[in-house]
């Protein structure tokens, strides 16, 4: 039984990245996630990890799922609790992409945080 079935809402965090490789429709995604999750005990939010570690630790410590585009924000997944899930949204493959870098980092951590990749077909720098 998961946290939601035990009366504790699941928390889904969308990394609110600025500049390149951002989720173009992040606010619509968070709203849709909350509409879907309302009846299921799921709470979704966007968080800007650029605000710094101190502002992000409480968000990370309570996040059950984090969704972020490929980039530096994924390192924050190392602060998530055991059993959490990290979803990495990959852009269309460009030259020199270190596409397996975060998969390798999280596999060395053991099964603490589960890492999964999703591939975008959107060729812009916003996915």
Q: What is the topological layout?
A:
Elements (H helix, E strand, L loop, with lengths): L9 E6 L10 H12 L4 E6 L5 H10 L2 E5 L15 E6 L10 H8 L5 E6 L8
InterPro entries: Glyco_transf_61_cat (IPR049625), Glycosyltransferase_61 (IPR007657)
Organism: Coccolithus braarudii
Protein name: Glycosyltransferase 61 catalytic domain-containing protein
Structural class: alpha/beta
Percentage of residues in DSSP E strands: 15-25%
Number of helices: 3
Number of domains: 1
Commentary on this structure:
The structure is a single chain. This protein has 127 residues and is α/β, with parallel strands linked by helices. Strands 2-1-3-4-5 form a 5-stranded parallel beta sheet, with helices on both faces. The model has no long low-confidence stretch (mean pLDDT 84). Helices cover 24% and strands 23% of the residues. The chain is globular. It contains 3 helices and 5 strands, in the order E-H-E-H-E-E-H-E. It has one domain (4-119): Rossmann fold (3-Layer(aba) Sandwich).
Quick synopsis:
The protein has a single domain, classed as Rossmann fold (3-Layer(aba) Sandwich).
Summary tags:
glycosyltransferase; Rossmann fold; 23% strand; 24% helix; 3 helices; Glycosyltransferase_61
